[in-house]
UniProtKB/TrEMBL annotation, chains A, B, C, D:
Record SUPFAM superfamilies: Homeodomain-like (SSF46689)
Ranges where the record places region Disordered: 208-227
InterPro entries associated with the record: DesT_TetR_C (IPR054129), Homeodomain-like_sf (IPR009057), HTH-type_TetR-like_transc_reg (IPR050109), HTH_TetR (IPR001647)
Keywords: DNA-binding, Transcription, Transcription regulation
Species annotation: Streptomyces thermocarboxydovorans
Highest classification ranks of the organism: Bacteria, Bacillati, Actinomycetota, Actinomycetes, Kitasatosporales
Name by which UniProt lists this protein: TetR/AcrR family transcriptional regulator
Length: 227, 227, 227, 227
DNA sequence: TATGAATGAGAGTTCATTCAT
DNA sequence: TATGAATGAACTCTCATTCAT
């Protein structure tokens, strides 16, 4: 199923066709197993043209990462509604996120799976995008604290860890949702909200789970999670 | 830096050396980018010997997966203490998990990153291990419910999603901890406990975050996470 | 002594060059001992080009067999003259056959020697060609019977055996002629005609050599071949 | 189905086991495709022992050729009965030949198929055996001439060609008989006697098939084969 | 006599990349 | 703008052969 072979298209269009093909192949096969031959064929052009426009396999992969990262960020941004309370913002952001990853499984695979397995260069490009999302979530956590009129004295490092955990959980759930038929974006988002939001709330109220003083042999409990 | 060339070792020993080398190379480069030459050199043996003992690149990779999966499961099992309350069990299991992944970053990479990007066969081997862990966590969640003498009427599907989210979050945090200098296993475990345990407790009390009825246009909040 | 390196030739031409080289190498070394490197070098191209056009060593060998089989059949067909009496037809067919095998020793080696030692697939391709020739000879034997206005009541099975023997003898003589300097195609053909034609004639007259009733102990001769 | 592993056997016995295995493998796979591993396993010994006794793959193959050549010659010799008339001698020799090749298909394959496709060294070893047989047949032809009390003035070269043709036909028929279920050694021998003996007789009476003076365009017949 | 451990050398095959038009 | 023709380099895998015991 190569693209219809239309000759003499403007460069920008051809490039998008190539990127479409590349994202699909890279997403399904991985960087190393993807072959430029297959990508060119799927794009409906000759291999030299791919090189003329995208320069090399590495550059092509980079371009895929950048395009898909931007698309994902844009989707999440479009889902966010700064006027809503923090929990609603998180909810809509998550929903947008899961919707996008469900609609673009290959792009998501490129970002989350493939880019991280090959060289620091690619990983760096993804890390930049991820940092943006973590920052967004961090902001929400702090906003939630403000909404609650509490200054729960959360140290920055702790907030960072929480944001990281939330984003990490979201990423894992995206893979899970894509791999599990019948799980919708809303369900994935709801699962995560249920899982995380109360915990965050507790934290802000100063209820935290305190690790036992000593790993071995100590018996002392902690704030019981079940009230 | 090839291993010291000790000659004429019994087969079982050589095999472990080869697996050590293979896990390292596979973990760092990925399945496709790893070359049998490099693995053999790192193991301090000739390539034919690798083939004689491990048969093929695929089989070698499989053997790595199986060995590392077993090691991980064993580590978590050794960390679990069935006599403790559920939260303490989760805590010690998580600590063991993060400790193991921190000490075996290459093995963890093989399991979590590399094995999932190449062929259903490999993914299946990992999935089996993951299923064991998810089952363990699921058990803990149910035990927590029992501990609290509540029958919170959590539907099985919801418990599955929660366990999935928890395991997913743990996996992501393991990557994060490995990539972020200065984060200890205990810190990672504490972050996740804080993040998750209170939420689970709330859920069992029937406090759940209810998504807005309609994505577009509805303004009304929900159970506020921040009290 | 690689072929003169002429660059940028149309595919069809290059393919023939490759087949030329392959037939030579396969014919001289055999299928297994022939190396794609050597073939590519003799063809004056790089190995990848051989693979691009001919796909694999097996396919290349198959292509050689098909090309050489066709050439041989065509040569024999071109030599046949359906208007002549049967003996003359056989003579001209044999002459064409020995001429062709003498001019294409490598092709003949591929067909007769090499193709039969590797896998049923290859043997099958040659068998098809051989069957055509045997059919042609069978026809001639029957035509000779008709020419003689005899119905010698030759059973089909016997005719088949005779045709087989004649073709087998021709094949062996082709090898012998190629290996023995100074033996021309005409000489080989004459030898075979002398050897076979009178015997056939006798057979059609009902003079056949009758084997002794019992292998051991019987003394009695048979129709003496020498009158 | 490796040979039963009996330890510490006298060298001569072990060598025969190895040759048995080697002939089987060489005969079925060909020289190049046969692997020393497979031969050693089939022989029920370790590879170094094969090298200790037989020295190298080449030497092993040579030994196979020599053993099988001797066996074949011996079989034919044992079948010959110098006291009989020439035709009966030929008959019994042929029968012995076809019987032996039918009982030792792998050995026959080594001699007739495999040895001729690899290097002049091996071909030479077979040629020596073949020469013996051709000499035997030549003798018979001359004896037949004597029996007939004729000195048909057959030039030596012609006799050589005839013997060659007869032996070649026999070789081809051996392959054919081995490949065609239901064809017995006696049938093969009878076919060849019928095919050849009358022709020889005619020749000795001076009836020979005379080739047309000119290949192209000449119409002139020849001694009609059908009287 | 006999073998487990080990390897140098080379096979077929594929791929990212470029040249010439 | 676009492509058929072509290749250097690297990969997985196999094999005949030897060493040390």
């Amino acid at each position: 199923m190569p693209a219809v072979k239309t000759k003499r298209m403007p460069r920008a269009v051809r490039e998008q066709q190539m990127l479409d093909a590349a994202v699909k192949i890279f997403g399904q096969r991985g960087y190393m197993a993807a072959s430029m031959d297959e990508i060119a064929e799927l794009a409906g052009v000759s291999k030299p043209l791919v090189y003329l426009y995208l320069n090399s396999k590495e550059d092509l992969f980079s371009a895929c990462i950048r395009r898909e990262a931007k698309a994902l960020i844009d989707a999440v941004r479009a889902g966010a509604r700064p006027d809503l309370p923090a929990d609603r913002q998180l909810w809509s952001g998550l929903t947008a996120f899961f919707t996008h990853t469900a609609r673009n499984p290959d792009g998501w695979s490129v970002l989350h799976l493939q880019a991280r397995t090959h060289g620091e260069v690619f990983a760096g490009e993804v890390a930049a995008m991820r940092a943006e999302i973590v920052a967004f979530v961090t902001q929400l956590i702090l906003a939630a604290a403000r909404d609650a009129h509490r200054d729960p004295d959360l140290p920055a490092a702790e907030v960072a860890g929480l944001a990281e955990a939330l984003v990490g959980a979201a990423e894992s759930l995206a893979d899970w949702a894509n791999a599990t038929p019948g799980v919708t974006a809303r369900q994935a988002a709801a699962t995560l909200m249920n899982f995380a939001w109360a915990g965050l709330g507790d934290l802000m109220n100063g209820h935290r789970w305190v690790p036992p003083a000593d790993d071995e042999g100590d018996q002392q409990g902690s704030t019981s999670p079940v009230r």
